[in-house]
Amino acid sequence: MAESMLRLPRVRMRSVPAGGVRAITFRAIAGHPRALTGAILTLLAVGIAVVGSVWTPYPPLSMNTSEAFLSPSVHHLMGTDVYGRDTFSRIMAGARVSLSVAAGAAFGALIIGTVLGLCAGFFRGIVDILLTRIVDLMLAIPGLVMALGIVVLLGPSASSVTIALIAVYSWQFARIVRSAVVSVRGRPYVEAARGLGVSSGSVLFRDVFPSVMPVLVVQLATAFAWGVLDEASIGFLGLGVQPPNPSWGSLLIEGRQYIYDAPWLSIGAGIMVVLAVFGVNLLGDGLNDIVDPRSGAAK
Amino acid sequence: MTTSSTPLLRVEDLTVDFHVRGSRVRAADHVSLSIEPGEIVGVVGESASGKSTLGLALMRMVPPPGRVSASRIEFDGRDLLSLTDAEMRKIRGHEISLVVQDALSTMNPVTTVREQIVQVVRDHEGIRSRRLLEERAVQALRDVQLPDAEANLRRYPHELSGGMQQRVAIAQGIILGPKLIIADEPTTALDVTVQAGILALLKQISDGGASIIFITHDLSTVAEICDRVLVMYAGRIVESGTVAEVFADPQHPYTRGLLASLLPLEGPPPERLDAIPGQPPRPESWPSGCRFHPRCDLWRALGEPENCRTEDPRPDETAPHWAACHYAREGAAR
Amino acid sequence: MLRYIGNRLLTVIPLLFALTILLFFYIHALPGDPIAGMLGPNATPDLVQQIRHERGLDRPLWEQYWTWLTGLVQGDLGSSLINGQSITGMVAGRIPATLQLTAASLLLMIVIGFPVGYLAGKHKGGWLDRILTPASLAGLSLPQFWVGTIFILVFSVQLHLLPSGGYVAFTDDPLQSLKLTIMPAFVLGLTLSPLQARLVRVSTAQLQQEPFMAAATMRGLHSSTISRRYLFRNAVLPVIVVIGMQLGTLIGGQVVVEQLFNYPGLGRLLVEGATERDYSVVQSLILLVAALYVVINLLMEVLHALLDPRVRL
User: Inter-chain contact B107–C212, Cβ cutoff 8 Å?
Assistant: First the structure.
């Protein structure tokens, strides 16, 4: 390809630092403002969830109708709802369910997607073609719509939302893994190794994983963020966790009923969702920079 | 080739530096040259010799973090360095044109050939009349000997062949009648037969009065159309003279090496291709003293004299044919 | 041109066909009897059997599929499991509203997202560029229902400026129709614009690096010419493709927003069907939505081919 004089002249610069999964250390995260903020927010959300599963300021289910619809105050950080239940406690309790669903969806999709991607990339042939077609198919159906379809069948609950989300997210992971396998497979040294008798399996193993891990880590964070958002959205539509079981989704649909009298539930649960999602998104974005420093130049 | 007392372009001590992450990388080092009206001067060198940077610097288009400095860059009596951006804009494309190797990459992919040629006229001469602009465009294509002008004007750049693209690029460059054309490897990416056509075209343009700075790594093209030649190595001009002088009697070992690596037209094919050993040095690691000495067979033949390693040759640049070598005469004698 | 469209259609049709198979068996392959589930635990087996027969659910599977497929080709989306109504009728009634919201949202998304992304990419490293990444991440983290809720609280409850829900056909009462559409469209457009801005920014920044941009300077063109005819003209091309990519998120968001604003579009229909366990409605709607998504993407590709002379095939 003819070099155009008008491209920026190539001046040798200091070599770009190596990335990869090993680059993810506490120091790396601490040094990156976005990753650090994201990590703090995420830990905050997780912390609330963990704490909320054993202790809340008030028992989340304890009703006290004389204290209904109180505005936020020192006693009730986010006010109370129609039955006098403390909103903040309910949000804390809901955190555990929501984050578990999101985590379950993200990890589940990671596992299934990786397996599918490996099969497609490794076995090639009819398996690969079939899988790519199916992936294209699945990606043609908008995610939330497909998730709704699955949740309808399984009945609304936390586990069905998790399963539905796994079904929706897996394809993205599969695509990533498959393309990584395919690109490594095509490299000359793989042919050479096979010629020497090394099993292609071990070659792929040793070389696919290091190159694909960084992308997977970032995608995992992204999927987790989607998971929180989608759980909340599906719950908001009344098709997820059903009230009075607390999760951010079910709290939102409850909150909507009383939005004119006591919007704190909606606002509060919404804020939690935003914070958690924003935190994970920031963390994912920061991790992306850490594992692949060159991508920062493209930003 | 007129000898007029005022050269069209006079450059003294042109230096281009790139400041990257605290360190300075020099691309061109105190280059001086002058161009007369109507002459074609070849600038020859390998990669990283600074020849392309030279062209960009003359157009004041060296991108940051590059910085250009010179005691003088005088074009047509004007000091280019002191011009404002607006004034420089008027000169680019109008009085000094630049033609580069990959013509397609210089053209807007989503507008027609006509649009691209006409835009240059619009922005410089302010002509708005469609009819007038069309006439100019058709004439421009005829001037570069591109047949079937009307059809080609309607086409998009990617629909043309490499040679045609280069002709369109040249058309854009000459439509306003520039006095100086800087051509950086205009034929390198083209087939040999197409190459000949472009070279002939350039010669014809020069016959019409324009000067051309012809930058290339290919000595054979220099022989075809250039009047004078400057040989560059590691950011410096190491030899300067007319084509006849330099080709017949090269005084710098590097020039001799370049000439030796050309295949002769007549006689039996040589048994070996003489290449200059080693690679041209990168700006960050220019050798001390004479920058060519590590690759110089004359230096080795003379027993590696110390001054080649410590002293930069400073020849008399006013002589018609000079070379930056401590042992230019000895080398010529061998 | 026609050949190009024909080519693309050839890839699309098998996809849709495969979708129908997938969706059909999705309902019938999973355990559980939809009718029994719908009628509740008190239903007698006879009643269940009767309804199953009425809906044609006791015919052999391949026959059911064939009936559905042939119906689809003729535009008949089947009938609701709950009340036997024609789904096509239900859908047709809601199409104008849905289109109005989708179009308005897309428009707002572009109006908000494109200029921001374009300017950020054009002046890379400038202040806009630097705040865009964190700002867009924040924007991407905002759930539509939450933004919508805030909007309702502010504009409907506090300020009484806009109604909080419902729909009026544009042809009946343009002003009121706009008032009812503006909030949901704004919510959707606003939440989608960060991604748009980011994508536009990246492509614009890349364009700035292209040699033809420097070449324009080399030819002494006015900077305004370069901005207009070189940068802008090329920057709009990727946007068209990007819109196709964002469509999926838009559709998902529209489902939520319609629910929040009580907006009678296809999204709400889907949710209603899902809530009532009306699998027939859900199945047909998912197919419809997927088909629309695929077709609109195709349209975007064709549009892109029309505007980019390099893509003429």
Answer: yes
